[in-house]
Structure formats: C-alpha cells, structure tokens
Amino acid sequence: MSELEDFRAEVRAWLADNCPAEVRGPMAGEDDRIWGGRNATFKTPAHRLWLERMGARGWTAPEWPTEYGGGGLSRDQAKVLASELRRIEAQPPLFSFGVWMLGPALLKFGTEAQKQTFLPPIARGEIRWCQGYSEPGAGSDLAGLQTRAVDQGDHWIVNGQKVWTSYADQADWIFCLVRTDPEAPKHLGISFVLFDMATPGVSTKPITLISGKSPFCETFFDDVRVDKANLVGALNRGWDVAKYLLAHERTMIGAIGEGDVGRPLGQIAADAIGRDASGRLDQPMLRARIAEMEIDAEAFRLAMERTGDLAKAGRAHPALSSMLKYYGSELNKCRHELAMAAGGADALEWEGERSRNGQAARDWLRTKANSIEGGTSEIQLNIIAKHLLRLPGA
Amino acid sequence: MSELEDFRAEVRAWLADNCPAEVRGPMAGEDDRIWGGRNATFKTPAHRLWLERMGARGWTAPEWPTEYGGGGLSRDQAKVLASELRRIEAQPPLFSFGVWMLGPALLKFGTEAQKQTFLPPIARGEIRWCQGYSEPGAGSDLAGLQTRAVDQGDHWIVNGQKVWTSYADQADWIFCLVRTDPEAPKHLGISFVLFDMATPGVSTKPITLISGKSPFCETFFDDVRVDKANLVGALNRGWDVAKYLLAHERTMIGAIGEGDVGRPLGQIAADAIGRDASGRLDQPMLRARIAEMEIDAEAFRLAMERTGDLAKAGRAHPALSSMLKYYGSELNKCRHELAMAAGGADALEWEGERSRNGQAARDWLRTKANSIEGGTSEIQLNIIAKHLLRLPGA
Amino acid sequence: MALILTDEQQMLAEAADGLLGEEGVGALRRLRDDRDPDGLSRDLWRTFGEMGLAGVMIDEAHGGSGLGAVEAGVIAEALGKHLTPSPFLGSSVLGAGLIVDLGSAEQKDRWLPGVAEGEAILALALEEGGRHAPHRIAARAERDGNGFRLNGSKAFVLDGHVADALIVAARTSGKVGDREGVSLFLVDPGTAGVAIERTAMVDAHNAARIMLDDVRVDADALLGELDGAGPALDRVLDLGRGCAAASLVGAGAQAFDLTLDYLRTRTQFGRAIGEFQALQHRAAHLFTELEIARAAVLGALQTLDRPGVAPAQAARAVAVAKAKAGQVAELAVQEAVQMHGGVGMTDEFDVGLYMKRVRVLNETLGDVGHHQEALATADGW
Amino acid sequence: MALILTDEQQMLAEAADGLLGEEGVGALRRLRDDRDPDGLSRDLWRTFGEMGLAGVMIDEAHGGSGLGAVEAGVIAEALGKHLTPSPFLGSSVLGAGLIVDLGSAEQKDRWLPGVAEGEAILALALEEGGRHAPHRIAARAERDGNGFRLNGSKAFVLDGHVADALIVAARTSGKVGDREGVSLFLVDPGTAGVAIERTAMVDAHNAARIMLDDVRVDADALLGELDGAGPALDRVLDLGRGCAAASLVGAGAQAFDLTLDYLRTRTQFGRAIGEFQALQHRAAHLFTELEIARAAVLGALQTLDRPGVAPAQAARAVAVAKAKAGQVAELAVQEAVQMHGGVGMTDEFDVGLYMKRVRVLNETLGDVGHHQEALATADGW
Description:
The complex is a heterotetramer, with 2 copies of chain A and 2 copies of chain C. By secondary structure, chain A is α+β, with helices and mostly antiparallel strands. Chain A has 11 helices and 8 strands. In chain A, the strands form 2 sheets. Chain A has a 4-stranded mixed sheet with strand order 1-4-5-8. Chain C has 3 domains: 7-120, Acyl-CoA dehydrogenase/oxidase, N-terminal domain (Butyryl-Coa Dehydrogenase, subunit A, domain 1, Orthogonal Bundle), CATH 1.10.540.10; 125-223, Butyryl-CoA Dehydrogenase, subunit A, domain 2, CATH 2.40.110.10; 230-378, Up-down Bundle (Butyryl-CoA Dehydrogenase, subunit A, domain 3), CATH 1.20.140.10. Chain C has helices spanning 7-23, 25-33, 42-50, 69-82, 88-102, 105-117, 230-265, 277-305, 311-340, 351-363, 368-378, and strands at 122-125, 140-144, 147-158, 165-171, 182-187, 194-200, 206-217, 222-223, 267-268, 271-272. Chain C has a 4-stranded mixed sheet. A 4-stranded antiparallel sheet of chain C has the order 2-3-7-6, with no helix packed on it.
C-alpha cells in the first residue's frame, strides 16, 4: 500500500504544479475537448499546455509501455492517477480514438515497426485517427462489407464507401476494414489497414442527425493507394483485429453510462424544480425514477471497475465488454430522458442563447445513438447469449 | 337511451329485492365462491338462493339466448346489469368454466341437441365443467397431444393423461381434446369431446403449487368410454373449437388484470403504511410504482371494454384476446408484487390466523401462473406478431 | 356508450387524415427548413376552417361545427400522426374553449367566428415555469381606473408568436399556488408593454415567452368572473390534455407503423429483421400498449363529452389518458429509433421527428409524472 | 483494492458452497416438510462453528476467525444460493456484530465463543412494524431499581424463536422516530414477561413476534451506553444489509443458472426453448443485471471493510447494493418461474423456492424502495 501512497503523493504534487486552472471543473461544451492532431485547435493556450505536459509523461495513455510513449503505470497506479485527476476535477488531456481503440489493437497485433511509428504520436496527440468499419447496408452485419482493396504488388487500390465515420472530416489517419479477398465467405477475406486521410481519392461528407450537425461522416474512397506495410495483423484476418478493437470501443461507449464527473441528476433536478418541506425533490414521481437510475449508475460504475480488475487478473471473458456496452448505453439514454423530464419546457428549446442552442435537447437526442453505434444493443445481447451463456443456436 | 334507463331501473329494483346481504361486499376468501355442480357447496343458504334466483332469470349468462337458459340481453343491457351489480358490490352468482368457456364454443359449434342438453344446466349452475387441454410435454405446444381416442363404432375408448386440469377433482363433466387420427400432422387429427367425469377409468390427482394446495390436477384416462354424440364440431377439427374457446379463456384470464371490485391498492397501502403531512402514502418510491400500475389498470379496464365493443360491432380481430390475456396477466402479477411490497414483513407470514394462513403471500404466488396458464405470455406475443402485425416468419 | 368511434366520427377521422396526409411530414420539414416566420401554415389553417375543423367545438351560431371532445381528439390524433404544426390545440381547443365557456356575447362574436374560419388565432398564456403548474400563477392584474394593469411573465405559450389575441391568466387576489383568485384577460399582443419572444422548439413547433410590463387593458378585457377563472381553466385544460393525449397516440402509432414497415423490409444477416423473435416480441408488446393507450384516450374524451359528468371524474379519466398515452408514445418512439438503427438517427428519416414531437407533447399540459401524481392525489393517497 | 475476491476469499466461498451444496435445497425442504420445531439445523450450525464460519467476524481471542464484511458476504451468498435456513444473519452478523462493537469484557466472554462455536444463537429484536424502520422504536425500557423494566412488542425477529439471547432495542429517552435515545439490552428469552411467537414465513425460514410485558433485567443487561445505541445499530445494520444483498445475489444467480439449464434442455415446437431469441435476449439482459448487482455488492462489502471509512459513505454504498441486488434478484426469480412455465409453478421444482426466499430477503433490513429513498435522502434531494 505504501508504495502506492507514495505514488499518489507524487501525482498530487505534480498535478498541483502542472494542471492549469483553465482545464479544471466540468466541461462547458464541445470546444473544451482536446482532440489533438495536425490541425489541432485549443480553447486556450492552457489547454495546449495540458496536453503537452500530460503527453510528455505518457499519462495520456497511462498503462502503455514507456517505450511507445505511454506512462508505463500498473493498473493500481493508473487508478490512483485517475482518482487524483477526478479529485481536482481535471478535464481529460486528450480525446483520442487512437488511444482508446487503435492503440490497444496495435499493441496486440502490430509489428514492432508499426508500434514504433504509430503509438508515440498517438500518445502525444499529434495524429488524430478515425475508424472505417460501417458501410451502408452493412451496419451491425459486417459480413456484408463491400469496400474493395485490389492487390497491386506493394500496395492496394481501395474503392468503396464507409458511413458513420466519426470526425472523418477532421482526422489525419484512418484505421479501416477492407475486403482483400472477394471470394472468401463472410468475415474471412477482410483486412485491417491504416492510411492517411490526405491520400488522393479520400473525401468526406458530414451526416446531419436528429440532434443536428454531427461528427459523423460518409467517407468515400476513389482509387486510394494504401501501402502494404500498413496492414495490421494477418492478411484476410482483419476480423480478428476488428473484434479485439470493437471490444475496446464497446467498453468506451459503455463508459458513458458512468456519467459526467458532475453532480448527481437528482441534485440538479431538485435545484431546478425545487424541494418540498422535507427537502425532497418536489416531483415525487420523477424523483422515484431518478433514484432508480442513480442506483443503477452507481452500480454500473462499480461493474466497470470490477470488469477492468478481472481483465487485469486475466479472468475477464472478452464478451464482458458487450455487457458493459449494452448496459452503459441504455443507462445513458435513460439518464438523458430523465434530464429532459427534469428540464421540462425549458429543455425543449432548440435555438438561442438561453438554451445554448438547445444543448440539453441535442445531448438527449445524441444519446439515442449510444445503443446503436459500436454494435447495437441487440447485437450485444446476441453476443452475451452466445459467448457467455452458451445458449443453443445463439 | 331511455329504454336502457328503464331497464336499469328494473334491474335495480329487482336486485334490491333479490340480492341477499350475505353476497354483497368484497369476497373474503375462496369459500365465498359459488361454483355450483352436482355436489355444490354454499357458504350460506343465501348463496344458494342467489344462484337460484340469478340462474332463473338467465343472468348467470346474460347474453346467451333465453331458449338455452341465458338472459337474452343485448350488450348494452348486459353492461347495465354489470354496472348495477358493481354498484351494490354484489358477488358473482356463479363461477363457471361452463359459462365462460364451453358455452360460447357450444353456441358456435354445437348441434341443436347439444345446445339443448348442455347449456341450460350450465346457466343454472347444475353441472360443473373442467377443461382437458394441456398434457405433460405438451404445454404451450398442443401439437404434441398424446391422449388417444380409438374408434369403436358408436363410441371411442380414450387413454392418456392431462395436466393443469383446474378443479378436475370437483368437476362433473370435462371438455377435452383427444387425438382421433394419430397419423395426421400437428393440429389436425385432434377432436373436441365431452364426457362425464364419473365415467369408469377417470381419475384425478391434485398438484401442489408454490402457493400451496391448488385446484389444478393431473387427470388420467384409462379405457374411458366416450359417446360419439358428444363430439363437438367436426371430427379431427377439434383445434378450431379449441382455438375459439381459448380466445374466451384468454379474455377471462386477462380480465383478472382489472382487479377486484375493491379499493385501489394505493388507498389500501396508504391505510396500512401511513400518510405524510400532505396526505401522501408515506413511502414515496412505492407510491410511484403503485401510481404507474393504477394508471395501467384503469387503462386496461377501458381496453377490455373497448375490445368487447369492437367484437360486438364485428370489428375485433380474434387475436385481440391475446393482447388482453398478455397485458391483464402481467398487470395482475405486478399488482400483487406491489401488494406484497406494501404489506412488508406482515405479508410474508405463511401460517396462522393473523395472516389467514398466508393469504396475501399465496395469492401473490398464485398470480405467477396467470402468464403461463391459457397460453404463456410468450405465446400471446407470438400470436400478436403473427396475426395482428403480420411480421415475416412469425 | 360503446368505446369505439361512431360512423360520423370515423368519417371525420378519415377527412382529417386525408387532408393532413396529403403533404404528411413534408409540411413540417418545409416549415422548419425554410425557417418559416410563422412556423405554421396559414393556408392549412384556413382549410381547417373551411372543413369545420378549426371550429370543431364552437357552436354553430358562431360558425363552428358544434361537436365534442371526441371529435376534437380525432383531429388532434391526425395532427399527431402527420406532425403538422397548427394552432389547433392552442387556439381551437384551449383559446376557443375558454371563450365558449366564459365569454360575453361581445367577446364570442368578436373571436369565435374568426377562429372557426381559420382566420384568427388565440393563445393561452398560462404557464410561468418550466413545468406544468396551472395554479402557480404569479403574474398579477391590478385595478387601474376602469381597467387593469398586468405585470408578469409567461412561458410555453403555444403559438403565442402568431396569436391575434392572448388569453392571459393573472392573479387578481390570493397568493401564488392558490386555486382561487385567478382571472383571465383578453390581451391584444400589440398593446404597449407586451413583449413576445418566439421559442423554436426541438420538434419544430413553436411556443412563446411573453413579458407583461405594466400592460393596460380595459374592463371589457376580463373574460369571465373576476377571481373566478379556476373551474373553467380546469375544464379547458382537461380538454386540452385529452387532445394532447390523442396527439400522442397519433404520433406513437405512426412511429410504430413506420417501424413495422422497416421490420418487414430491412434485411440483415440475410433475413428481414422483423423475423427476429426478440424484435417481434417487443413489437407485439408495443402494439398492446398502444391499443391500451388508445382505449384510455377515447374513454377520457367520451367522459368529457358526457352531460353532467362530475369534474373530478373527468379529471381522473384525463389523468389516466395523458399519463398512459405519454408513457406509451415515449416507448414507441424510442423503439422506433432503436429498431431503425443508424438511419433512425439521421434527420433524413422521419422517426426522429416523432421522437421530438412526443417529447414536446409530453411536456404539454403535464407530463406522465404530473398525471400519475394527479391520480394518486385524486384518489386520496 | 481490486473489486474481485482474493484467493483466500475465493477459497472461503468454495468451502461454504461445498458444505451447503452437499444437501443443497434438500435441507430446506426437509426442515419444511418435517415441520422441524427449530426450522433450522443445529448440526449444520455446529459445523459452521467448526469451519470458522459462524464466528467469521468475531475476533480470534473469542474463538472467531477475525475476518471482515467481504468474508461474511461470501458466506451469505452461499446461504442464498442453497436457500439454507441458518442463524447466520441474525446471530453471527447482527447479534455478534453488536456485542463485538459494544459489549463489555464480560458480555463478550459470555456470548462470543458460543456463537463462534455454533452453539449459541443470538437474535436482534429491533423492528416493530411491517416495514423496516430502525428508528421507529416505541418499546420502552424504564429504570427500575438497579435495572430496567421493558415493555413493548417486536416483530420480524430473525430466528427469535430459537435464540439463546435476545438483543432488544428499546427507547430510554426521546420519542418514537428519534435517532437518539435508544438502548440495547441482552434479554434471556426465558425471563418472565417475554412471550415469543414463531412466525413461519413464505420461504420456510422463520422469524418471531415478541411481546415484552414488564420484563425485568439487571443493569448488566445493558449493551453499550445508555441512550447511545444509534451509531452501532447503524453500523451493524449496514453490515446486515450488505450480507442480505449478498444472499440476494446468491439466490438470484442460482435461479438464473437453473433457468439456463432449463433453456438448454427443454424442447418445445421441436427446438430447445433456449434457441428462441426473445428468451435469449431476456436471459442476456438478466445476466448483465446480475453482474452489475454483484459488483455493487462487493463494492459495498469492501467499503464496509475499509479502515476509517465515513459512516455516510458506507451507508450510501450499502443502499446501492441492497436496492440493486433486491431489484435484480426479483427480476431473476420472476423470469425463472416464467421461463420454466407450468412446472415452475409446482412445488416440485426449486425455482418457486427461490422466488419465496428473494421476497423475504427483500423485506429484510429495508426493501428496494427503502434504499432508493436512503440514497436520495443522503444525496440531499
């Protein structure tokens, strides 16, 4: 315990010196987020500084090895770092699909050269990544993948279309599933490749969602050249890489179920709506629904932690990520339904300053994608039934 | 309107004269129920009188034609009768599977002789019926029916076993599905027959349920002789009769969702648990759950009425009975869960006078069968998906 | 009375459906994407007038159809089904309802024929906070010579930005939260001191926030008795809730129908997704809930139409209907988006529009929790 | 600390499971069907003593194992899994917990070794009404010479009919509902004025109703400080709630496992019913809920074991665990009976027994609503 406590003291002291005031406290909006990348924008110079300092220590990817730009921390140390960051309400130094999704896959499937090349810039937030999985007509069912890579010796020529590519219009590179063997059945014949979004032939078009403008894009590949050195894992076995990465994506999406660092919804609602004589939120029926959700949310936070601990102990079935993804995304939808009910008519506004352009309503609508993106809730339940429950015919 | 109002006045006057005080008010227990039959028992002489008087008017089967012992009322008149009975909290004059289930099937499929023979004694409560559908290994899936009827010219010899036969040990006659063509596939080859439970070779054995002693029996047929005159509907087409009758059974089971005539659960709970300063049931979370259930219950009562009205107008799809059965039985389970929560530790007692031998707990457990008997909730949902929604592959 | 529509009511339903179905959801999209200054179609509103829909509950002497709550609900259901923005609820139901109930002969002559023709638009300025609380009125009207002087602020005034007259609920005695002491005033929106801000809502329908700053009205602006608006307000609010519940059923059922179509046609893993039993059971459950909600709504509307019905009984029936319809419609749109998958999240598909509309209808005149509370309170627990 | 069992805890779990699993649910059936006068097995209880389970939280100096809340929870989970009636919760957790916390040297020497050996049984007489309300204590103890005189009535006293000593919570000052002013007394059940009625419960476990009619006890019967039982009661009740939550997870998970077996083997319409996707999705949902509940329970038990943890923080974690475990176990047994169909309704199958046990565990030390309320209140809304 005492080594960990020493580490905690060290972290606390370092954060006191290095975490700028501007990046502490709840995030006010999208532009607080630090995404990094070639064309990075920062809300304030302090935001840039925060990324640089954390990146330099590798604490943007705390558990990655130091040789690849990570922090080299143990799981227990990483928990200490996270709790110290929470304590001072520090905002994340980096939002990154590279850290959350591609990195773990490269650590497992990448060549040494790929790790050396790609991981350190990810940890420093220098290259921003997007993901090319879904296609029109192949949402949950990736077996129907159509994007074709034709072998040209040392490279492929890629043609096709992706959809639901988050931030494709702002990303520097893409990790992408392409069909390298059109004859092979279903999931065979698919490969996992990386390429620069600046390659000629790549174009993107944002998708308008029910919540308004969105980070999602349609992405088009028109004779795009992809170097074979950027194949991750074995040829035609991209599905193995994709599955591994999807499990990380699931856990990441599930984590939204934990909610923001901020105050419990019950308190927010009570402040907005008022309290009765005994201090209770003055809408008994709404209060009961919120209480149920808050219990679920707290239990879910513990389940997230427990699953991580099980994984570290080598005792977690990979399909547990489906469980977290399913529960976390449904929970987050429920939380926002209740937030809308608590907000009443005020939360219905869609434009103007008072509602910050309908922030509450747009956030609410956005959550509806949680149980669709990264594999629908139905797909997660199928996976649980098959791989964890081993039910017949699942 | 005014004819109906005249009828209402007449009913009210007649009930004032003819409904004994002993059969008014909520029923205290099983022995308040009047089941009739050859070996009928009555809690008090007034109970017998109530059956005789109502039976004589045909108001035990208000909408049946008078020539078959019914009341000959129109649907609107029947509603008036029901509302007047409710008004004085009159208990039902007869509990009868003959009235609820067999009668409607005979009216539709029976020969004139069968109607003349069987319907009047049913309406007068002289013959008590039970139902022989389910078999071990053929619960929801009646296609697997094994009870065999072998043709002997003017009669069949029946061998086999039924299960879940309610009150088989107290019934006078049975309406029963038997396989008359062992070669025919699935639902074909099954016939619908009637016979006396006193016929040699019939024996019964009660089933103990989680709620304790139960009216359900296993029923055994060992070379039982069944007269061919007692075939209802066409030979080998018993499934048509059974389906029609099942729809009535479903509606009947669904009707338990309407709850008893008594006070709303919210009031009962508030009286038991106490109220806060503003008069609210002093358990806010429980109160919220009860409120939701009471809304559902009231809406369901209206849906029952509406479905009946649609049927009368010839605009009800037969599968609507599945909808009512599904919703009503789930609702009744929910009501009893909440009643147990409201009862707290007191409701957990299983023996002794204070709890009337665990009445609350036994009632609660008994409701769990609601969504199983007469076709499980899952079967009802299948039927809705197939016949009402016409979903592919349903 | 049978809990089904009469032949006449069925014909009315088909007429409204036919009219609104011509353009369908396209009408809403056009108004939204063109950023229409009114946020609703005045042409359609005139057609409503011509067809007798705008004045459905206005007596024939004042140009209306003289029909009842069931008929109003039938129209509201069609509006919910096609998501058509219109002043029906605010003007024909709430506004006209109050004038029919409380208006002097002059007030009726002045406003009812215009509403019935689809020319005039009324708006009820009642709410003051974010949640429905009809008795929590802080806006005040004070005697000022022969008339009154109004001060206060109002929110969530349906179509208040295009109203020809505002019906303002203001306190003339008592304190905030009292059931008594509220009076209604017909206010010309052009009067000095009236400031109206249009608030575009998530569902591309509109409401307004209204500031009243020393607004001077004459004595004949008073609608009904001084201090005595309570009972009439309760009546008309129940009517409005019944209609909002009907709109919820219309919207929920249509979202469900779109979803059924999708389930039948969209394929995945080589099968129509409607073949998956898990989705079949959810669809069957939802169908059941919608039918139950439909019965509750029709039951409430018939109760409102029953001569001499006790207000408490009507209120109870309406609470059941609004709570149940709101809960079920919410489930319907959530299932609709989820079962549509990614495309359900796009603005291009209609299901998202239903989700938005249901959210707003749920907040209109009391949400699910509000009406659950109303039932429990009414039943004394 | 990792949110998983340590190797030692895992071994303890296996030992308890092995012991109870030998006879499994058969033990409960035998006690029930034989109408056993004790309603629990004294032999088993002695074996618990020999294996160090009965004194799991009693210090080694008094013959116990000196372990913590997590270990107690591990045992409680096994008891829930096998539905074994035992005085573990009432005696080893609640009773011994209070004596460990508050007892004098004499009191500890008198009772703890016996409990640890599985010879003595303690029972906490706290509740007075049908619902858990630990501060609503009307029973009174009044000074009487050198001792006290107790009057009042107690209900839902777990295994109170076989207790060797009752720990009675009685008011020595203040009024009903006050958090202060409660004292604890060790009362010999044979004392004049004590009347004990065994109440057999739906799950074939037992509790007692106890009447105290001028029951005279000496001064040394007082456990802890006069008027000051509150904090210790709160601590031990949270421990008991954590263990009850663990039993709920044990029972719920076992009902689920029985159901999975049934889904894999029972055929209908020519297929194993576990092939039906609608049931697969419900099973997968339930699995998820059970895992979430399991994490919440372990989290609460670890929190209780954390040195110096603030009582409010422990109470909050326990409220989450008991509410979540209760809700999930209830779902598990409902799904178990429904998926078993008709046979699930028969006494012959075990799933019904799980449904009954879960109902009782849910009422024990506060139901789902009680703990949802506790969370909301603790968080100030």
